């Protein structure tokens, strides 16, 4: 009996020891599971690294721009026709004429950025085209906006709000100095998520084949989604280099390819919208085409660069300046014309009334002509 009691006591002691050991091991396992609770040995190294300096710059850019980027909401009243079911004479006999046309309000979202202390704001044309009201949100306050002017060709619009306090304008950069590989920051309101900050790089410059207008674009992989349209593309120096415009997608979602309008292109458009409410585009009165390599050889050219003149409008600026069918425009104001798109861009951005120097290839020699730019007909 005593041996049995001793065995039970020994068993209880061993069980208690096992349980205590398990609690002790559980505590040890807790430490091993979550690792050393102290600082990582790489923290000091990382804090002195360039990556952390760049991270700090990104934070500064966000803090600088969080009150300079605006949230745009639009509203449009549209007339909705009733279902064609009610147009059937046989069915009308039983169900009556049915409901008449009704209206519904459609809302849109976009982004923009402040250009001046007195309330001028830049966004995309497609954000505000055809709408009835535009509301601009700045730092959790909403303002009714007036559309000063809007240009479909470049997809740029200028808005104005009335505000008693001075606003914080953005800092404009030189988009001609942008290079592939430069940092690119996009700030906007994708899907209504205001002040969303994304980072990427400049993937390409001078993209002209992204829409039928042939305008030059900056390509970036900084994430751009519906609602980002009209927001700024910013360089690492905190300067706006472009206006986020659109994405390339086969699914409707983001695929890493976004496009922005270069800020240098936008400057002249915005100034004209402010002054004239519309864009007065340059016009010289010619039909042009890209010259082929075979035809370039026939003309005695060593390259297929330039813009081939296929037609000269009678009485137009080009005819008055001496331009002929068959000429190849090689330079404008000593700037090389690589494709016909270069000519369209330069002439289109030239103020009406200004004279351009055209260097043309004619009968196997270069000839200089002077053409006064007219205004493109509507």
Can you give a write-up of this model?
This protein has three domains: 65-161, Beta Barrel (Thrombin, subunit H); 175-276, Thrombin, subunit H (Beta Barrel), CATH 2.40.10; 282-375, Pdz3 Domain (Roll). It has helices spanning 2-34, 43-47, 50-65, 89-95, 125-128, 263-276, 293-298, 317-320, 340-349; strands spanning 69-80, 102-114, 120-123, 133-138, 141-151, 156-161, 183-188, 196-207, 217-220, 232-234, 240-247, 258-262, 282-283, 286-290, 307-312, 328-332, 335-336, 355-362, 365-372, 374-375. It has 378 residues and is α+β, with helices and mostly antiparallel strands. The chain is built from nine helices and 20 strands. The strands form four sheets. A six-stranded antiparallel beta barrel has the order 1-2-3-6-5-4. It has a six-stranded antiparallel barrel with strand order 7-8-9-12-11-10. It is globular. 26% of the residues lie in helices and 34% in strands. Residues 1-31 have low confidence and may be disordered.
The level of helicity is 25-40%
Largest beta-sheet details:
6 strands, antiparallel, barrel
Overall structural domain count: 3
End-to-end Cα distance, whole Å, is 116 Å
Query: Which strands sit side by side, in order, in the main sheet?
Result: 1-2-3-6-5-4
CATH architecture descriptor text of the largest domain: Beta Barrel
How many extended strands? 20
Order of helices and strands: HHHEHEEHEEEEEEEEEHEEHEHEEHEEE
| Structure class | alpha+beta
User: Quick one: CATH class of the largest domain?
Assistant: Mainly Beta
Radius of gyration: 32 Å
> What fold name stands as the CATH topology of the largest domain?
Thrombin, subunit H
Report the total helices: 9
């Amino acid at each position: 009996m005593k041996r049995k009691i001793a065995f039970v006591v020994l068993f209880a002691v061993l069980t208690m020891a096992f349980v205590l050991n398990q609690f002790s091991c559980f505590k040890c396992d807790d430490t091993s599971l979550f690792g050393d609770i102290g600082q990582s040995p790489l923290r000091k190294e990382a804090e002195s690294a360039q990556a952390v300096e760049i991270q700090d710059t990104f934070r500064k850019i966000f803090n600088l721009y969080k009150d300079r980027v605006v949230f745009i909401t639009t509203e449009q009243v549209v007339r909705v026709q009733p279902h064609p079911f009610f147009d059937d004479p046989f069915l009308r006999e039983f169900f009556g004429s049915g409901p008449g046309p009704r209206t519904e309000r459609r809302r849109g979202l976009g982004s923009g950025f402040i250009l001046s202390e007195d309330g001028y704001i830049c966004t995309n044309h497609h954000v505000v085209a055809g709408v009835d009201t535009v509301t601009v949100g700045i730092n959790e306050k909403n303002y009714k906006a007036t559309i000063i002017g809007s240009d479909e060709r470049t997809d740029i619009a200028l808005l104005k709000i009335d505000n008693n306090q001075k606003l914080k304008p953005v800092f404009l950069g030189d988009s001609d100095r942008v290079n592939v590989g430069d940092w690119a920051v996009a700030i906007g309101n994708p899907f209504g998520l205001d002040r969303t900050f994304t980072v990427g790089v400049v993937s390409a410059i001078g993209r002209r084949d992204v829409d039928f207008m042939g305008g030059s674009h900056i390509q970036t992989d900084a994430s751009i989604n519906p609602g980002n349209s009209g927001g700024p593309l910013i360089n690492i120096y905190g300067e706006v280099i472009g206006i986020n415009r659109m994405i390339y997608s086969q699914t409707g979602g983001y695929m890493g390819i976004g496009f922005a309008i270069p800020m240098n292109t936008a400057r002249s458009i915005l100034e004209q919208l402010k002054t004239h409410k519309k864009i007065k585009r340059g016009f010289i009165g010619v039909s042009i085409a890209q010259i082929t390599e075979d035809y370039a050889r026939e003309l005695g050219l060593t390259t297929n660069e330039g813009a081939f003149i296929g037609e000269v409008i009678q009485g137009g600026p080009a005819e008055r300046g001496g331009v002929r069918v068959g000429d190849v425009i090689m330079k404008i104001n000593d700037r090389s014309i690589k494709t016909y798109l270069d000519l369209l861009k330069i002439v289109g951005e030239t103020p009406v009334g200004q004279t351009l120097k055209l260097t043309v290839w004619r009968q196997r020699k270069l000839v200089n002509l002077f053409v006064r730019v007219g205004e493109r007909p509507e």
